[in-house]
Specification:
By secondary structure, the protein is α/β, with parallel strands linked by helices. α6 (117-123) links the parallel β5 and β6.
Length: 510
């Protein structure tokens, strides 16, 4: 199935077709419980009907504030089948952030768990659009609707007239600049993304996939939808990322594909013990959310005898843009070539295309692009200029069409008129055998504007000095790129729940 075929599906329509085709074949595992395609389809039909009974109709927003669990994947498909729009909330949100997302999206209901009860109750009175809270809990909680009441019964949803291009999901960006913005993603945009990935061997019918990514994030949603699209033999869902548990399940379930962010691969390497962990079935590791340091990629490919492939996408592009392909040459440092049906350009500050090899902002257009930022017409117009999504990412493109993500536009460091791309320095730092984690930001400087500052976490039992790292970098980088200061930390660097290092937190500290 190509992208054009994928664009005719809604999320519920795709699940119905796959359930008819694959029946009792496992669609996912969670805490040793196995759920089949047909069982999942029927269960989410019932949930959709339960939502309809309490007034959820086409276009109504329903928030999801849940950890990784059965109910989170059920809620997504139940909402989508009801014609509603899911609104994902980060489980780490504090009261103010929960209130902001619910009010900004105008969510009618919130599906949550008793572990978030105090946070929700503390701000519930301030969420004016909210008509009710659906609570996942072993006991009945006053002033809430039990999830079991929604999820149990025999009545199933009928045809709701949902179209493939209708909104399915609002995913809020991280809010690194200003308030978080809700990217509105269509049913068929998400499916088109996984179609592009699946058609190049990322998802196969015989694959078992492990996902320890948080389901409030688009990356995890794409893993699940992509597995469903391909008819794979089960997604092993983990409640949270634990490298030892992941390595054990590689063997237990015969996992063949692992999806993760760069830090996950670093921790897997650090925990791997060939005498205890069987990784022989793994054929493919897929990296998203941030570029993987080249030294980490080389080491894990050698130790695990697997292929690491990178892709690039944004929430605003339904997670899709470019991918490395198994049937094409792999180029070190590249995130592959644009997916079929996606147009890409590298442009200067005036949106003029730059020559091959030069760095500029990556812009794109195609069927994967978001519909809008929810209730933010000015932000939408700024980002979707002239029909092109302006990503804010710096990239270059070679003569063969391969893309190389250089850095985020906002992360670029300007030192005395020179542009410095932190990723280049980070790749050098990760090649040092003592480094577990590293990142580089621009520190304010009265003379040169900014100077590169490196943050380093060493592997257990390792030691190193600032002078040692300075010599190491000077042998591998032009002098103006070498960090001027190094800060060693005994604790992990700050990260978001999907494991991406939060440079803005470090910048705020400065």
């Amino acid at each position: 199935m190509g992208m054009e075929d994928a664009l005719v599906y809604t999320q519920g329509g795709l699940l119905k077709e796959r359930a008819e085709r694959f029946g009792d074949k496992p669609i996912y595992y969670f805490k040793d419980r196995k759920v089949g395609y047909q069982e999942f389809h029927e269960k989410t039909d019932v949930i959709a009907k339960g939502l309809e009974k309490i007034g959820v109709g086409k276009g109504d927003r329903v928030g999801i504030l849940l950890p990784n669990c059965h109910e989170v994947v059920e809620s997504y498909y139940g909402i989508w089948k009801s014609g509603g729009i899911s609104v994902s909330l980060n489980p780490l949100y504090i009261e103010r952030e929960i209130e902001y997302v619910i009010n900004d999206s105008g969510a009618k209901y919130l599906i949550t768990s008793d572990i978030f009860r105090d946070r929700v109750e503390a701000t519930r009175a301030n969420m004016s659009s909210l008509e009710g809270v659906i609570m996942v809990s072993p006991e009945t909680i006053p002033d809430t609707i039990p999830y079991a009441e929604i999820a149990e019964g025999s009545e199933r949803i009928g045809d709701k007239g949902i179209k493939p291009g209708d909104a399915a999901q609002i995913m809020y960006t991280s809010g690194t600049t200003g308030s978080p913005k809700g990217a509105v993603l269509p049913h068929n945009g998400i499916i088109a993304t996984v179609s592009a990935i699946s058609d190049f061997g990322y998802f196969l019918e015989e694959d078992c996939t492990l996902c320890a990514l948080p389901f409030f994030h688009l990356f995890a949603v794409l893993v699940f939808v992509g597995h469903l699209y391909a008819g794979g033999r089960g997604v092993v869902i983990h409640e949270r990322f634990d490298p030892e548990a992941v390595l054990q399940d590689f063997s237990k379930y015969g996992v063949s594909v692992f999806y993760g962010v760069p830090t996950m691969y670093s921790f897997l390497l650090d925990s791997y013990d060939a005498s205890r962990h069987d990784v022989s079935k793994i054929r493919l590791g897929v990296v998203g959310a941030a570029p993987v340091p080249v030294p980490v990629m080389r080491e894990i490919e050698e130790k695990f005898d697997m292929t690491i492939l990178e892709g690039f996408g944004q929430t605003e592009s339904c997670g899709g843009c470019s991918i490395e392909r198994l049937d094409r040459e792999r180029k070190e440092g590249s995130c592959g070539i644009p997916a079929d049906g996606i147009d890409v350009k590298i442009v200067d500050e005036n949106d003029n295309e730059v020559p091959h090899g030069e760095v500029g902002e990556l812009i794109m257009r195609g069927p994967l692009i978001m519909k809008e930022y929810w209730n933010k017409p000015e932000e939408t117009a700024k980002t979707l200029r002239n029909g092109w999504l302006h990503t804010g990412d710096l990239a270059r493109r070679d003569e063969d069409g391969y893309l190389y993500i250089v850095d985020r536009l906002k992360d670029m460091i300007i030192t005395g008129g020179f542009n410095i791309y932190p990723k280049e320095i980070e790749d050098v730092l990760y090649s040092h055998p003592a480094v577990l984690e590293a990142t580089v930001i621009g520190a304010p400087d009265a003379v040169k504007g900014e100077l590169a500052k490196a943050y380093i976490v060493l592997k257990e039992g390792e030691s190193a000095t600032e002078e040692e790292f300075d010599d190491f970098c000077r042998q591998r980088l032009a002098s103006y790129k070498v960090p001027r200061t190094y800060e060693f930390r005994d604790t992990p660097l700050p990260k978001n729940p999907q494991g991406k290092i939060l440079k803005r937190v470090l910048r705020d500290e400065l």
